[in-house]
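Entry for the shared binder. Reason: the reviewer on the internal report wants the predicted structure included alongside the sequence.
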Amino acid sequence: MINENLAVYHIKKHLFLYILLALIVLFNIPILISLVADWTRDGNYSHGFLIIPISIYLLIKRRNDLTFPAINSRMGLALFLIGCLGLIFGTAASEFFTTRLSLVIAVTGLGLYYLGKDNFKKVWFAFAFLLFMIPIPAVIYYAVTMPMQLLASKATTAILHFIGVPSHREGNIIYLPAYALEVNEACSGLRSLETLMALGALFGYLILPGKIKPWILFLSAIPIAIVVNIVRLIATAIEAYAISPKLAESFLHELSGLAVFIVALILMLLIAGLLKWKKNTS
């Protein structure tokens, strides 16, 4: 009974906030449906299903640190209005990334307005983390993919030469004696980057002190994604050269993608542990 009374009191106290949130969700159901479709269709963005629950958990985790009544923030109201305008114009222009980003901005603005600056400083990460549910915009994706493909193919060819595997490169294709290994978009390392950066941001926020070390862990996702992807390409080339070209296109190649991601996650945890250990020993 006590818990029920507390729940009723909480809802009555924050009723206006919940009404606004419900309206935002109601008017943006098509955007949320399109996001879920992307998370479902592309496994590289399937982490999107976890982003909202994690953000809610992070808010609940800090609920006892919040103090009410709070002074409403005019900056939050301005941010909320900017998000609403972005939703309107993005929908009119059928620009998916703009509408999705504007949705996050509107929710963040609402949170900042209602919680006030002092409270928002304690929970800002929960709102910022929502950005990771948005897939990389196509303009950025295609602008960065080819350079990453070329970087991966150049590095892989150089290492193959070093270990004695005969090969030569033409663009993003590595030619072995009996096999042509194409470093396509999926092999560029970009698709796993957003997931790794989301994990790096979350781990850094939860376990690392200060402001610099979480950023170091977050940015470490970039070289980690590149390095482990190159390792996967080298392993695929060696399989095709030393065992069989068919092996490079079998289910083992797809399985290696999961193995490489696990290795990347372990590396990130090791870096986080090292950064935390340095704090404890200093």
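Summary line for the report: The longest strand covers residues 173-176.
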